[in-house]
């Protein structure tokens, strides 16, 4: 079954994933900012997955997973739970291959993301905003429909797809000293770490995480997956705990995780909007906030940052 692939993505698997999804995704731009370089003291290259189809990197992993469904699985459809960007990715991917998508979303998900999922033709099942409620609703859907569950991050097909963003960045901007991504469930971070390991082994991988959802930071400290003591952050895309597939990869290949406050996230978001003229959501600017917080670590270095998404609720801006 697709949902229980046990193969950690190899170099070849990531290359195959890239070839598979290439007709369905954008090769996103890499931007620079003289102002950011001056402020940070680093030479920074932004991989703009906020300009990706569906407005986020998640289309890469979702598309890679859905394209590997067999005919019987496609007939029964695909299901997932997500607060937004993965929901859109699976809904879009399912539409592209002509199968049904069942998406469990918390009732407090951003309005822009609800509308987008509905616009791609998926059936949305709303639930209370808890992981338990999500999983119960998802289990009911899978039982009722026989749909294949594609986990938002704890799935090697998804991780291989997410790895292609860093692969493209490395191919366009070689010899990066560091690559920074946000971390929620760890799909993008573990995929990035694998791409760096295979395609640019001298590069260091660092993650940014909100202080108000710092489970990944604490998990690395504890050596096991733990929950954050409290959850309160503007970065709504990063509220998930790590999984048993993402955590070991992060343990093995990620140098460190830098935590940032909501004020630091909002300041980074404002800087990007005002000076770079690109729309990036709070979760997407977390690695830039981390870079600006730890400037001395990256001073004089060549740094890649993945802007993970740009799906902002314009009726609810923080500034």
Automatic annotation (TrEMBL):
Record keywords: Lyase, Pyridoxal phosphate
Output one GO BP term. D-serine biosynthetic process
Is Zinc a UniProt keyword of this protein?
no
Q: Name one GO molecular function term.
A: L-serine ammonia-lyase activity
Under Pfam families, the record lists: PALP
Instruction: Say if the entry is tagged with keyword Lyase.
Output: yes
Cofactors required: pyridoxal 5'-phosphate
Q: Which family does it belong to?
A: Belongs to the serine/threonine dehydratase family.
Q: What name is this protein filed under?
A: Threonine/serine dehydratase
Organism, as annotated: Xanthocytophaga agilis
């Amino acid at each position: 079954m697709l949902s229980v692939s046990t193969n950690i993505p190899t170099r070849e698997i990531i290359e195959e994933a890239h070839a598979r999804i290439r007709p369905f995704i954008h090769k996103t731009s890499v931007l620079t900012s003289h102002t950011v370089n001056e402020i940070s003291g680093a030479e920074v290259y932004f991989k703009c997955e906020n300009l990706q189809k569906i407005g986020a990197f998640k289309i890469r992993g979702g598309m890679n997973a859905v394209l590997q469904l067999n005919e019987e699985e496609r007939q029964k459809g695909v299901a997932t739970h997500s607060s937004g960007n993965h929901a859109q990715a699976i809904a879009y991917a399912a539409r592209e291959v002509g199968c049904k998508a069942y998406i469990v979303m918390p009732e407090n998900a951003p309005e822009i993301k609800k509308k987008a999922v509905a616009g791609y033709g998926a059936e949305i099942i709303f639930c209370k905003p808890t992981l338990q409620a999500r999983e119960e609703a998802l289990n009911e859907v899978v039982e009722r429909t026989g749909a294949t569950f594609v986990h938002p991050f704890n799935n090697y097909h998804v991780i291989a797809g997410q790895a292609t963003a860093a692969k493209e960045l490395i191919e366009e901007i070689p010899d990066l000293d560091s690559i920074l991504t946000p971390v929620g469930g760890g799909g993008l971070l573990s995929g990035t770490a694998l791409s760096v390991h295979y395609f640019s082994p001298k590069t260091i991988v660092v993650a940014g995480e909100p202080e108000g959802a710092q489970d990944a930071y604490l998990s690395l400290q504890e050596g096991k997956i733990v929950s954050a003591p409290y959850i309160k952050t503007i970065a709504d895309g990063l509220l998930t705990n790590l999984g048993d597939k993402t955590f070991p990869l992060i343990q093995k290949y990620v140098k460190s995780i830098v935590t940032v406050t909501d004020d630091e996230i909002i300041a980074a978001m404002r800087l990007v909007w005002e000076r770079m003229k690109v729309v990036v959501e709070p979760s997407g600017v977390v690695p830039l906030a981390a870079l600006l917080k730890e400037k001395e670590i990256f001073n004089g270095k060549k740094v890649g940052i993945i802007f993970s998404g740009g799906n902002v609720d314009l009726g609810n801006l923080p500034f």
